[in-house]
Amino acid sequence: xxxxxxxxxxxxxxxxxxxxxxxxxxxxxxxxxxxxxxxxxxxxxxxxxxxxxxxxxxxxxxxxxxxxxxxxxxxxxxxxxxxxxxxxxxxxxxxxxxxxxxxxxxxxxxxxxxxxxxxxxxxxxxxxxxxxxxxxxxxxxxxxxxxxxxxxxxxxxxxxxxxxxxxxxxxxxxxxxxxxxxx
Length: 183
Known about the structure:
Elements: E1 18-27, E2 40-42, E3 45-54, E4 59-62, E5 65-72, E6 75-86, E7 89-101, H1 105-115, E8 128-133, E9 138-141, E10 148-155, E11 164-173, E12 178-182
Parallel strand pairs: 3-12
Antiparallel strand pairs: 1-5, 1-8, 2-3, 3-4, 4-5, 6-7, 7-11, 8-9, 9-12, 10-11
């Protein structure tokens, strides 16, 4: 007797490339985010985090926190999650890498307000990222342990190529990247 596929309709969603990022480092009162973030899991499905999104004001409500974010349309973005098991248990290394092309004064000023303090010092800010993939699924990374800036590089164009920023964030967490659903 041939095997009967039982789980054809239960395929787990997966990222099909990154369409858009919502990056957040501060709440609506400009205070740095406190981690782990207060999350609300979907009833009867603990793999999905529930949140509300006010895109007009660029804020999300995650649990009891109001968080402001910036929308980024990156090029060549990748999100990876590597599982490691050792004597301390199982943890996940999550990496978000992307390029910001066509550097302009506006792009530079937005990055300065995001990455630097008001006194001009480099701020190693803890970040959470909401990822919209090419399949229109929404994911959250850095909610229990924050994403921390790993590398920030300016690459100048040669032979007519655009100048661009190459940015990479990393988090080490006991929690996996989770799918989110809007309230």
